[in-house]
Design brief:
Growth Hormone, Chain: A, mainly alpha, 16 helices, 76% helix, 437 residues
Length: 437
């Protein structure tokens, strides 16, 4: 493992993080162009909406296989391959736009490919980080990954809209260039990323277990590991509140106008960036369990505050507090997952997590819309706060979470087989045994 040094001086971490951040920004930029291109090609808002729907469905379908591929194949080759494939798709779409042949079918195919490949790149990059940073810095490194989404939120739409105004193909080209940059960054990482596991890609294809069995083994491992079961279900509930948060803010403060709402959401994203930057220091100051439970209760209080405040700056300030604390909490949970999950299960556990969050995320905007329409601002945010409070109570008093060790720097050992999850995982991680399942 690399020697302990500040993350900003860890060459390989900076390379991988920079590539991930640039590709996330490129995806946010292109997200503006896809519906506009579909509208220009069809003139129908319904058909244009199909492009986004197909991309989301493909992403969900690709999530569980992504975990098997991440566990089976060398991480560097998989990361580079995913980014290059998306760069090729972007290049083909740019050519089609220039030739005035970007019809609905092509846009849907491009959106589906991007969505299907995305989870594989994310899962592989997430587990590759454990090979790049020392174990004691893992939670901080994973927390800093949150900065990517906030940078994309701050810059993606404005840059995408500006580029589209210059030329319809410009945002797609920018997306393709971002994938090339991410592929080059991953290829330049010097640290060996490969872990030999029972799913090693060097095994003859005929000797590998079918993908369906490997997926089932990963899901079963996740469910039978009490800590993963409790934390992922609770986090899915909190994710419902967070996924509906933006819509609830927009719906309840529409009188502030686009400029005011943009300012409030921008302040929130800045809070997320600050949280990602400050995460290593916060994680040194507080115990992992304190970070998780404290995050839940402060978010609960912030949601109650959003139910009564009315000024743009107050809304932005509360959002900033929530996003600031989300980064270290996410870092702790990812590090804890790595701590108790055998290396040969990492990809499949991450993909199970992404699937659960992908299923729960659409519930948030729908729930927020119903609550705002029927109950008004105060009761709507109070209901979201109650959901987060219930999940936080579960986390606070769960035996699995109470047994979380203070030291998450000792990862679990490889499992004997991908399917051996029944008897070794239905227990909480114990502070006295950092590698316990």
């Amino acid at each position: 493992m690399p020697s302990a040094q500040p993350l900003r001086r860890n060459r390989d971490f900076v390379l991988l993080w920079s590539g991930q951040t640039v590709s996330s920004l490129g995806t946010a930029v292109a997200a503006v162009a896809y519906p506009l291109l579909a509208l220009a090609a069809t003139g129908s808002a319904v058909q244009a909406g199909l492009v986004g729907a197909v991309g989301s469905a493909a992403m969900l379908c690709g999530t569980l296989p992504a975990g098997v591929w991440a566990d089976r194949h060398p991480p560097r080759a998989l990361i580079v391959g995913c980014h290059l494939l998306r760069a090729v798709v972007s290049a083909m779409l740019v050519v089609a736009v220039l030739a005035h042949r970007a019809d609905l079918g092509l846009l849907m195919a491009a959106s589906a490919t991007m969505g299907f490949v995305g989870p594989t790149a994310f899962a592989t990059e997430s587990i590759a980080i454990r090979r790049i940073v020392p174990p004691e810095q893992l939670a901080g490194a994973l927390a800093q990954n949150d900065a990517r989404s906030h940078i994309a939120n701050l810059l993606g739409q404005p840059v995408g809209g500006y580029l589209y105004a210059l030329a319809a193909w410009a945002p797609i080209l920018a997306d393709g260039v971002s994938f090339l940059f991410a592929a080059a960054s991953a290829a330049a990482v010097r640290t060996p990323l490969k872990l030999r596991t029972p799913l090693d890609s060097t095994a003859p294809p005929g000797e590998r277990e079918p993908m369906r069995r490997q997926i089932v083994a990963g899901l079963r491992h996740t469910w039978h590991t009490r800590f993963l079961r409790v934390t992922l279900l609770c986090c899915a509930g909190i994710n419902v509140a967070f996924s509906g948060l933006t819509f609830a803010v927009i719906a309840s403060h529409a009188h502030a106008g686009a400029g005011g709402l943009g300012l409030a959401l921008g302040i929130g994203s800045v809070g997320g960036l600050v949280g990602a930057w400050a995460s290593p220091r916060l994680l040194r100051m507080f115990r992992p369990r304190t970070v998780i439970v404290g995050f839940g209760w402060i978010v609960t209080a912030a949601l109650l505050g959003l139910g009564v405040v009315d000024t743009v700056t107050a809304v932005g300030g509360l959002l900033a507090v929530m996003y600031l604390l989300a980064a270290p909490a996410n870092g702790v949970l990812f590090a804890a997952q790595i701590h108790i999950t055998p290396p040969d299960m990492q990809g499949r556990v991450v993909s199970a997590m992404l699937t659960l969050f992908g299923i729960s995320a659409p519930v948030g905007p729908l729930l927020a819309g119903v609550l705002i329409a029927r109950s008004g601002q105060l009761l709507a945010f109070a209901c979201l706060a109650a959901l987060v409070a219930a999940c936080t109570l579960t986390l606070q008093y769960s035996r699995a979470v109470r047994g979380m060790p203070d030291d998450l720097s000792q990862p679990a050992e490889p499992s004997d087989s991908p399917d051996d999850t029944q008897t070794t995982t239905d227990s909480a991680p114990q502070a006295s045994s950092p590698g316990a399942h």
